[in-house]
Write a structure and sequence with these properties.
heterodimer; A: mainly alpha; two-stranded antiparallel ribbon; 11 helices; globular; B: mainly alpha; 8 helices; 71% helix
C-alpha cells in the first residue's frame, strides 16, 4: 500500500506533461499525496510539535518557507549537479537554509525557539524536504518547483494543524493561539493523555485510518459504477 | 552510578522513539518483519554510537575553537552522511555477513532523525565525552529494543482481523501508542 503511493509520488501525472498544470501540482501535494497523512513522511515533527496548535502552525510555516527556498535553489542547480553527488549537495543546501531559519527564529521569536527546540534543527532530516528535492525540484524548472513546494508545504501545515487541534482540544479543553483562544470545556476536564507523547500516536493513527477508509470506500463506489455497462456487454 | 542511571534513563525512560519522537520514519517503515527490525536496530546502534563520538570531538575541537558553533547542523549532517558511507565500505570489505544483513538499511540511516537528534542532544546538554558515549549507547539500545519489540507485535498483528482502512500504518501507530503507554510506566525509574 505505502510503496504504491510512494511510486506515485515519484512520477506524478502532472510532471509528464510538458505544460505544467500548477493547480494540479499544488493540490496533489496538499491533499492527494499529503506528506503526513498518505505518504507517512516527516512523522517525527508531526508528532513532536503538535501538542500545541500555535507551535505546530508556526512549525508548519517554517517547513513551508524552508521547502520553497530549497526547492527553488535545487531546481536552479539541479542541471549542473553531477548525479553521483546530488544527495550530499542537496543536504548541504537544505542544512544551510535550515540553519538560517533556526538563527532567525532564535533571534526574533525566542519563546517559539525554546518550545520547538531540537525539532527546528531536525527539519534538515525531514524526509519530505529531501524527498521533494530528489523527486521533483532536481528535474524541473523553477516555477513548477515552487508550486510543488507550496503544495507539499501547505499539505504539512494542514496535517500538523489538524493533529494539533484534535490533541489540544481533547487534551486541554480549548485551543490557545496567541491572538485568539477558544474554550469548549474547562481545563480540568481535559484528558491529559492526548497532550502526552502516547496520545499523539493514537490521534495520528486514527486520522490516517479514517482517511484511508474513506478513500477505500470511495474507490469501491467508483469501481462498481463503470462495471455495470461492461457486465451488460458481456 | 550516575552514568548507569543515565543509561537506563536514555534507554527506557526518555526512549528516543516513544517519548522523544525521533526515528519514527524507520520505526514505522522497517518494522514489518522482525529480521528487518534487528538489521535496522543494529545499523542504528553502530551509527549512533560512532556518530555521537565523532560529532562530539569535531564540535569541541574544531567548531568551538574557531567560534563557528552555528555551523553545527551543516557539519553534523555531512559528518553523519560520510560516516554512514564509510561504515558501509568497511563492512563490505571486512564484515561481509553483517553487511549482507544490514546492507539495505545502512543508506537509509543518513536521514534517520534519531542519529542527528542524538548528536545535537548531546551537544545541547553539554555532556563530556564519557557521558556522551554512555548516553549515545543508551539511546541506541533503546531504539533497538523498541523497534524489535514493535516488529514482533506487528508480525502478530498481521494475523488479526483489522478493518480494511486501518491495515498497515494506522493500526501500527495505534499499537505504538499503547506501547508508549507501557513505556510511560518507566517514568518511575528516572
Amino acid at each position: 500500500m505505502s510503496s504504491n503511493v510512494k511510486a506515485e509520488a515519484l512520477a506524478p501525472e502532472a510532471v509528464s506533461k510538458q505544460k505544467y498544470n500548477y493547480k494540479e501540482i499544488i493540490s496533489v501535494g496538499m491533499f492527494k499525496e499529503n506528506p503526513v497523512f498518505t505518504l507517512l513522511l516527516s512523522l517525527c515533527s508531526a508528532l513532536g510539535v503538535t501538542s500545541s496548535t500555535f507551535n505546530s502552525i508556526a512549525f508548519g510555516f517554517m517547513v513551508l518557507v524552508c521547502l520553497i527556498i530549497t526547492n527553488t535553489a535545487i531546481s536552479l542547480i539541479g542541471k549542473y549537479t553531477p548525479s553521483e553527488i546530488r544527495i550530499p549537495v542537496y543536504i548541504t543546501v537544505i542544512a544551510a537554509v535550515v540553519t538560517i531559519i533556526e538563527m532567525l527564529i532564535q533571534a526574533f521569536f525566542p519563546d517559539l525557539f525554546a518550545a520547538l527546540g531540537l525539532f527546528i534543527a531536525l527539519i534538515v532530516v525531514n524526509c519530505i524536504i529531501l524527498g521533494r528535492a530528489e523527486s521533483f525540484a532536481g528535474k524541473n524548472p523553477v516555477l513548477p518547483s515552487i508550486a510543488d513546494a507550496i503544495g507539499s508545504g501547505t499539505g504539512i501545515l494542514i496535517a500538523l494543524s489538524t493533529i494539533a487541534v484534535v490533541r489540544e482540544l481533547i487534551g486541554t479543553g480549548g485551543i490557545n493561539l496567541q491572538f485568539f483562544s477558544l474554550r469548549l470545556f474547562p481545563q480540568q476536564f481535559g484528558i491529559g493523555f492526548f497532550v502526552q507523547p502516547m496520545g499523539s500516536f493514537i490521534v495520528l493513527g486514527m486520522i490516517v485510518g479514517i482517511i484511508t477508509s474513506t478513500r477505500l470506500a470511495k474507490a469501491r463506489i467508483e469501481k462498481t459504477k463503470p462495471k455495470a455497462p461492461v457486465a451488460a456487454k458481456a | 552510578m550516575h552514568l548507569f542511571s543515565l543509561f537506563i534513563g536514555a534507554t527506557l525512560v526518555t526512549n528516543i522513539i516513544l517519548s522523544s519522537f525521533l526515528g519514527l520514519c524507520s520505526f514505522i517503515g522497517v518494522s514489518k518483519k522482525s529480521s528487518a527490525a534487528i538489521g535496522m536496530g543494529g545499523a542504528v546502534l553502530v551509527v549512533i554510537t560512532l556518530s555521537s563520538a565523532i560529532t562530539w570531538l569535531v564540535f569541541n575541537f574544531i567548531l568551538v575553537p574557531f567560534e563557528i558553533e552555528f555551523m553545527r547542523t551543516i557539519v553534523f549532517i555531512l559528518l553523519i552522511a560520510s560516516l554512514v558511507q564509510f561504515v558501509e565500505m568497511v563492512m563490505k570489505k571486512h564484515m561481509v555477513s553483517l553487511y549482507k544483513a544490514l546492507g539495505v538499511y545502512l543508506p537509509l540511516i543518513t536521514t534517520n532523525c534519531a542519529v542527528l537528534g542524538a548528536a545535537l542532544m548531546n551537544i545541547d546538554r553539554g555532556f563530556d565525552f564519557a557521558t556522551t558515549m554512555v548516553n549515545a549507547l543508551g539511546i541506541s539500545v533503546g531504539f533497538f529494543i523498541v523497534i524489535y519489540l514493535f516488529s514482533t507485535i506487528r508480525e502478530r498483528l498481521d494475523l488479526a482481523k483489522t478493518p480494511e482502512g486501518f491495515k498497515g500504518a494506522p493500526i501500527a501507530l495505534i499499537t505504538a501508542s499503547l506501547m508508549a503507554m507501557g513505556f510511560f510506566g518507566f517514568l518511575g525509574l528516572g
